[in-house]
Amino acid sequence: MMKALDLSPNAEWKARFRASNVMWAKIASRNPATIRMIEAAGFDFAFIDMEHSGFSFETVADMCDTARRYGIAPIVRVPQVEYAFVSRALDCGAKGII
Question: Cβ distance 23 to 90 under 8 Å?
């Protein structure tokens, strides 16, 4: 079942971070179904690693789209801290950049 999640900074999220009551998962699979498993396990955000994987921006966009639909915040680690990588990851739907 999909749930809506307001990903803007708010008191609930800030409180959860301060209480260290946030769960995250690093994604190593290209399959967007992984996001569904992460949501079912109760995770709050997914860490999509482009630096140490072969994920294309197309894959990242698919994963970010799926994450948003399931109420998971997609956080993307870009291969290099350059405008082109950061802006494309944000265009793909990343809610955070590492």
Answer: no
Q: Measured between alpha carbons, how far is residue 67 from residues 3, 54, 63, 70, 77 in Å?
A: 11, 19, 6, 5, 15
Contact between residue 35 and residue 46 where contact means Cβ atoms under 8 Å apart: yes
Q: What is the pLDDT of residues 44-88, one digit of tens each?
A: 888 899 998 889 999 999 999 999 999 889 999 999 999 999 999
Give the long-range contacts of residues 95-98, CB within 8 A, separation 24 or more. 95/7, 95/45, 96/45, 98/47
- Asked whether the beta carbons of 38 and 5 are under 8 A apart, the reply is no
The answer to whether 57 and 79 are in contact (CB under 8 A) is: no
> Is pTM beyond 0.85 here?
no
